[in-house]
């Protein structure tokens, strides 16, 4: 269960990064100021923004839910520390002359 949740979390995180990087700012370019549809001919000027905004919103919600789910799952699973299961390394004293 935890492994599946971690895999989903990583996939959603990468998808969220990609969707955010695909979005353009409010003042995209000079052609956008004059109503040009230069690079957004497939979606139109508002269609791509609405689609990317919805995808960003949904992926952010899924990211938050998987974060909360992972926190709850790991808290119930017990001690999952980075150092759990390791033996402590003891250093011996240097030899006396």
Folded structure, characterized:
The structure is a single chain. The relative contact order is 0.14. This protein has a domain of 49 residues. Helix 1 packs antiparallel against helix 3. By secondary structure, the protein is mainly α.
The helical percent reads 55-70%
Shape: elongated
Uncertain stretches of 5 or more adjacent residues: none
Tally of alpha and pi helices:
3
Helix vs. strand class: mainly alpha
In short:
The protein has three helices and no strands. The chain is mostly helical and 97 residues long. It has a domain at 1-19 and 48-77.
Indicate the topology.
Blueprint: H1 2-22, H2 30-33, H3 44-77
Helix pairs in contact: 1-3
Q: Which key phrases capture this entry?
A:
97 residues; mainly alpha
């Amino acid at each position: 269960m935890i492994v599946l949740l971690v895999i989903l979390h990583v996939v959603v995180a990468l998808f969220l990064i990609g969707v955010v990087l695909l979005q353009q700012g409010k003042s995209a370019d000079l052609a956008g100021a004059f109503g040009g549809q230069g690079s957004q001919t497939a979606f139109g000027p508002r269609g791509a923004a609405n689609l990317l905004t919805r995808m960003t919103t949904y992926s952010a919600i899924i990211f938050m839910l998987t974060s909360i789910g992972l926190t709850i799952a790991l808290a119930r699973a017990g001690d999952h520390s980075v150092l759990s299961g390791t033996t402590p390394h003891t250093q011996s004293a240097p030899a006396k002359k």
